[in-house]
Specification:
The complex is a heterodimer of chains A (112) and B (113). The model of chain A has no long low-confidence stretch (mean pLDDT 93). The termini of chain A are far apart. In chain A, the strands form three sheets. In chain A, strands 2, 5, 6, 10, 11 and 12 form a six-stranded mixed beta sheet that branches. In chain A, strands 3-9-8-7 form a four-stranded antiparallel beta sheet, with no helix packed on it. With 112 residues, chain A is mainly beta. In chain A, 39% of the residues are buried. Helix content of chain A is 0%, strand content 51%. Helix content of chain B is 0%, strand content 56%. In chain B, the strands form two sheets. In chain B, strands 2, 4, 5, 6, 9, 10 and 11 form a seven-stranded mixed beta sheet that branches. The model of chain B has no long low-confidence stretch (mean pLDDT 90). The chains are: A mainly beta (112), B mainly beta (113).
C-alpha cells in the first residue's frame, strides 16, 4: 500500500543551524507530495507542496524537491529560528484517492 | 476569516456517553474529512465525504457516524465512548480535483474518563 516514512524524531537544533528532515514514500501511482506543520496546540497548516517530479516547493525559507528516482521529498531550511519549533508531517495524495497518507511526524525543537 | 472551523475545541466526557463534534468550511470545497491524531501524533484518516456522499470509511468502528447535512458541514457523532477514543480529531476539506491539498481545522481534543 501507499506509505510515507519520515526520519525519527525528536530533532533538536540551535538557532541558525541547517535543517534536513528526510521523507521517502511508496506509492502505486504518481502522487502529489506535501509538508504540513503543526505548531503547539494548533491544527495542521500546509507548508509546501509539489505535484510532479523535479518540482520544488518552497515557503517561509523551507524547501523540498520531488525526487522520483529516489522516491524522496526531504525538507530543508538553511537557517532555522526558534519559531520553527513544531511537528512536521510529510504526506502524499494520489489523484482520485481523495485522502492524505501521512508520515509519523517529526518533532523539531530549536534552542536559542 | 476562519476557513475550517470545529466545535468544541475541548471535550471531556465519561465512558459510555454519546458526543458530537461539528465541522464547517467556508472554502467552497467539495470534499471533507475526519482524521484522528493519537497521543504519539500519528494521523490517520477516518472518513471522507464528497458532496454529502461517503467516499472513504477506513475501518472505523460503527460507533462513529459521520453526517453531512450539506457540503459545507461534516459532523462526527460518537456513541458509547471508550477510553481509546481519547485523541485529537481534525476536520479537513479539499477541492475535488487538483493536488488534493487539504485545509485543516484547529482540532477537537477529546478526553474520555
Amino acid at each position: 500500500g501507499d506509505s510515507v516514512t519520515q526520519m525519527e524524531g525528536p530533532v533538536t537544533l540551535s538557532e541558525e543551524a541547517f535543517l534536513t528532515i528526510n521523507c521517502t514514500y511508496t506509492a502505486t501511482g504518481y502522487p502529489s507530495l506535501f509538508w504540513y506543520v503543526q505548531y503547539p496546540g494548533e491544527g495542521l497548516q500546509l507548508l509546501l507542496k509539489a505535484t510532479k517530479a523535479d518540482d520544488k516547493g518552497s515557503n517561509k525559507g523551507f524547501e523540498a524537491t520531488y525526487r522520483k528516482e529516489t522516491t524522496s521529498f526531504h525538507l530543508e531550511k538553511g537557517s532555522v529560528q526558534v519559531s520553527d519549533s513544531a511537528v512536521y508531517f510529510c504526506a502524499l495524495s494520489l489523484q482520485g484517492a481523495q485522502k492524505l497518507v501521512f508520515g509519523q511526524g517529526t518533532r523539531l525543537t530549536i534552542n536559542p | 476569516d476562519t476557513a475550517v472551523s470545529q466545535t468544541p475545541k475541548y471535550l471531556v466526557t465519561q465512558m459510555g456517553n454519546d458526543k458530537s463534534i461539528k465541522c464547517e468550511q467556508n472554502l467552497g470545497h467539495d470534499t471533507m474529512y475526519w482524521y484522528k491524531q493519537d497521543s504519539k501524533k500519528f494521523l490517520k484518516i477516518m472518513f471522507s465525504y464528497n458532496n454529502k456522499e461517503l467516499i472513504i470509511n477506513e475501518t472505523v468502528p460503527n460507533r462513529f457516524s459521520p453526517k453531512s447535512p450539506d457540503k459545507a458541514h461534516l459532523n462526527l457523532h460518537i456513541n458509547s465512548l471508550e477510553l481509546g477514543d481519547s485523541a485529537v480529531y481534525f476536520c479537513a476539506s479539499s477541492q475535488e480535483t487538483g493536488s488534493y491539498e487539504q485545509y485543516f481545522g484547529p482540532g477537537t481534543r477529546l478526553t474520555v474518563t
